[in-house]
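User: Structure please.
Assistant: Input sequence and predicted structure:
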Amino acid sequence: MPSLSRVVITGVGLTSPNGNDLETFRKNLLAGVSGIRRFETRHMGQVLAGVCDFDELRYQKRKELRRGTRAGSIAIYCAQEAVKSSGLDWSKVDGRRVGVYVGTTEHGNVETENEIAQLAEFGNDTKYWSHHHNPRTVANNPAGEITLNMGIRGPHYCIGAACAAGNLGIIQAAQMLRLGEVDLAIAGGVSESIHTFGIFASFKAQGALAEHDDPSKASRPFDTARNGIVVSEGGCLYTLERLEDAAARGATIMAEIVGYAVTSDATDFVLPDTEGQKACMRLALERAKLQPTDIDLVSAHATATPMGDIQECRAIRSVFEGAPGVSVNNTKSFIGHTMGAAGALELAGNLPSFWDGQVHASINVDALDPECAIDGLVLNRPAKRDVKTILNNSFGMLGINSTVIAKRFE
């Protein structure tokens, strides 16, 4: 298989705190509709979170839901919706030639916390520990649940890449398609993070958990009053194919993946590094054979942490200096931080820019932090723009950086 095979997106399935399909998600992004609300969690009471309300029984039976995981349920929903979106006749797809690559931040914390809480009710007698615990908590669970549900016999695994994982699912799919290892990839990222109290408690201990009287205004990247992350669940999976295969079946092509990069900062456990982020964006541009002036839209990772936003804005300013036509936006202001799903879900929210000619805004910016000021930053209301290329940033703890560049198919 030629190493330079062109890879295209032919379908997308998603669930987010403000929409369970691309059409609704996009409509709410353009309308400024937030999906953040109050959510009750163990040991912490009410927190602010992005909660999904997709139809869990659309593709699973109740027994399967009880045996499986929340991450697996999200993954199955997104995978099935992606295949439906792609127009593939699933009955004619060779399941041995399908690969499933799902990015995750972490997996198993939810199930372990639940089991420990239940065990305490029975005097910590381990005979009450669920025999489903091990398959629920293994790292490949969400991807594996997709294969069980859909009868896929090709490779499957999860990619642990902190909050860069959604992008890495896409990157892995493109690489495997180019290697000829698979003919169809179902890839992206999922997150069940809100169902573990530990993630809220840890961000709280760091002083990085967002607080606001109005949940819809809690996630506010770039704003002077930003005070932390809103933890959210969600998922977004794509069907990706080689261009020649998609064209042969007459598929509708949503976008082409033309560049990507993954780098490491090697500097700090949690604080992002501007130099590492710049290097990642520049490497992705180099691989795509594009200049900064060729990019129309930058989807910023910005999590609404005070230093995190500043570091990324410095990186974007440096890379796109001399490229005044670039627009910059952020999706977390609507849905919070969907962790392992973030890269994939945020790219999906921007893909319709290719055909509707609009760039959705970053909302909740009442007073722009001067250190986050970037030429082209789209604030509070959408902007009209002919978008042909999107650079999608997604960064994570332990200094992992990822960038994916998508192009309008021509």
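The mean pLDDT is 97.
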